[in-house]
Design brief:
With 197 residues, the chain is of the alpha/beta class. The chain has a single domain, classed as P-loop containing nucleotide triphosphate hydrolases (Rossmann fold, 3-Layer(aba) Sandwich), CATH 3.40.50. Helix content is 47%, strand content 14%. The protein is built from eight helices and five strands; from the N terminus they run βαβααβαβααβαα. Strands 2-3-1-4-5 form a five-stranded parallel sheet, sandwiched between helices. The longest helix is centred in the first third of the chain and has 19 residues. It starts with a strand and ends with a helix.
């Protein structure tokens, strides 16, 4: 079984975490990795909706995400967590519990995030959403993340290539491990022949 690890995407709402997580998962599967995405918002909606966005509730949310991620990692899964996770202390606790751990900071100016998620931020500015990171609650930038992506200055594809290169340099991935397009086509044809597609 291959080694599982976590890629923790942190940044303001609207910085690109969900988009990067989805594209990165596709690429990692080309390397033959078993991959799961834990998108904080989606997990909150589908698994537990009892938490708000106070600092205490955010901390509890991260504890739950960490527990799920740990189960997956120890079974050889690459886990991509997309969570605002705005506080350094809580991220440090997560890092201490999840190993191997790659922190990716999606750095994006607040004004760009507001443009991307205008409705969400408008509601927060009107006081309809409490504890909104970047508006009424702080975001504490990571001090030593493994990767910083300035998502207002690069495409999602460029960001993915940067992450993959870092993972290769850190020996999480091997360059010759990736499936080529012809490999993928052969697998698809074989699955079709077996009636799975």
């Amino acid at each position: 079984m291959s080694q599982g690890f976590v890629i923790w995407l942190t940044g303001l709402p609207g910085s690109g975490k969900t988009t990067i997580a989805q594209l990165l998962a596709e690429e990692l599967r080309r390397f033959g990795c078993a991959v799961e995405i834990l998108d904080s918002d989606e997990v909150r909606r589908k698994i537990y909706s009892d938490l708000g966005f106070s600092r205490e509730d955010r901390g509890e949310n991260l504890k739950r995400l960490t527990f799920i991620a740990n189960l997956l990692i120890r079974n050889g899964v690459v886990v991509i967590v997309a969570a605002v996770s705005p506080y350094r202390a809580e991220r440090a606790e997560v890092r201490a519990e999840l190993q191997p751990f790659v922190e990716v900071y999606l750095k994006c100016p607040l004004e760009v995030c507001i443009q991307r998620h205008a409705k969400l931020y408008k509601e927060a500015q009107a006081g309809q959403i409490l504890h909104m990171t970047g508006i009424s609650d702080p975001y504490e930038e990571p001090e030593n993340p493994e990767i910083v992506l300035e998502t207002d200055q690069s495409t999602a594809e460029e960001a993915i290539q940067r992450i993959l290169l870092t993972l290769e340099q850190s020996n999480y991935l091997k360059p010759d491990q990736a499936f080529s397009e012809s490999d993928e086509e052969k697998v698809r044809q074989r699955l079709e022949a077996l009636g799975y597609l």
